[in-house]
């Protein structure tokens, strides 16, 4: 049986932590309510609205309910650009909090790192602060050595957001490297299982060059690939047939 993610007994008081749920918004704007609470969270537990004594089942449930409310794809339908950007930033934080609190060893280390004798300070921020890189760096920087490192890329499938901030990659990443020019095209957040044919269509869309029949992709070592090959993990492909540089407008 897998070890429980329940933390060991420590010295904090649960009254120091703020518990909340998306449903607490009542008749108000639930999306904005959730984003505000994520921005104001002083700990990973408060990010998900649970207490340090929460069992893994409760953490999973909280993560699911929050995700249903602020997933960027859902917020996109509201047509509010600022709100979409805030949701994208908040969702990265929520996923990162969930990853740590459902990993027994990381959660135990995190619990020890926030053992306190005084009530935790509440961040005086709101959802409008979520899109600032300084906020993300400050938030992720709190948990250095527990999954995020502001100096080097952590082990695993993480993406560099700039400014020394790393977040969990969503999906897989495909890097196309031109065998002649050395130019690169990087496509992130691709669905696992994407076929090579679909990948070629994305290349045409991004480079505005084609047709697909001109694009030849193979492994870096030259291994040939068929069009039904599926991209199941982040990898690098060698490419010939079209240029990957920015399209050039020519007057005729």
Automatic annotation (TrEMBL):
<dbReference type="Pfam" id="PF00226">
    <property type="entry name" value="DnaJ"/>
</dbReference>
<dbReference type="InterPro" id="IPR036869">
    <property type="entry name" value="J_dom_sf"/>
</dbReference>
<protein>
    <recommendedName>
        <fullName>J domain-containing protein</fullName>
    </recommendedName>
</protein>
<dbReference type="InterPro" id="IPR018253">
    <property type="entry name" value="DnaJ_domain_CS"/>
</dbReference>
<dbReference type="GO" id="GO:0005737">
    <property type="term" value="C:cytoplasm"/>
</dbReference>
<dbReference type="GO" id="GO:0005634">
    <property type="term" value="C:nucleus"/>
</dbReference>
<dbReference type="InterPro" id="IPR052594">
    <property type="entry name" value="J_domain-containing_protein"/>
</dbReference>
<feature type="domain" description="J">
    <location>
        <begin position="43"/>
        <end position="114"/>
    </location>
</feature>
<dbReference type="InterPro" id="IPR001623">
    <property type="entry name" value="DnaJ_domain"/>
</dbReference>
<dbReference type="GO" id="GO:0031072">
    <property type="term" value="F:heat shock protein binding"/>
</dbReference>
